[in-house]
Amino acid sequence: LPFQFSSHNVSMTVWWRALILLCCVLDCVESSSPSPVLQRNKYNNSFRLTRSTRTRVQLLQRKYKEQQLGDKHFEDRSRQLKDLPSLSTDFYSWLKLTEWDRLHAAFWDMQAYWKMLERKRKQLEKEEKEQMVDRTVRITLPQSIRHIQFDLRDLMSQVSSQMSYMNSSWTKPTSPPPFNPQTRSKTEWDSRVEGYIILRDLDLYLTKLARDFLLLASKTHL
């Protein structure tokens, strides 16, 4: 009898361990595929970050126009940069975009703006060094641009994470693709206006991106 009792205990112990292991595996499988609530929260978080980034861009744009163009009310909607993503979108085509196409376009558009900001930031840093600007007194334009780049980088990471859930083969590029600047010579004024155009279009683009995230969140059903 003692031997039979011991064998029964061993069997029950093995069974319980197997059950616990199975529960752990099921929990892991469930947690590996994000729930609709989690997906919706992620899109809402991306929306909030996009909105706060846009506010930062608007503040920088006013400061840039005042310092670089001498007029904080400067406006010129006629000038464009061919290397920036197009802002014109057909409304019905926009509505029909798949989730993947919407995220994929957002990632590469933000990459384009990040690269343009990087080029402009380095140019302004070079000018500051030549002019011996005291950067300890106030936050300079290059520092403000860098903060916006950090925001864009965080947004790109969030979008890349969402894309990875949809396609496990998707991996975030380790470095931005090479940038081909416009070859025509620019005057100093043209160069300054170029910075204004980048910030102007980025402001408009972030408005469009915020709408994308709101739409994606609304399509995530419980």
TrEMBL record:
Residues 167-186 are annotated as: Disordered. Belongs to the IL-6 superfamily. This is Ciliary neurotrophic factor. GO terms for cellular component: extracellular space. Residues 1-31 form the signal peptide. GO terms for molecular function: cytokine activity. Keywords: Cytokine, Secreted, Signal. The keyword Signal applies. It is found in: Secreted. One of its GO terms (biological process) is cell surface receptor signaling pathway. It comes from Cyclopterus lumpus (Lumpsucker). The lineage of its organism: Eukaryota, Metazoa, Chordata, Craniata, Vertebrata.
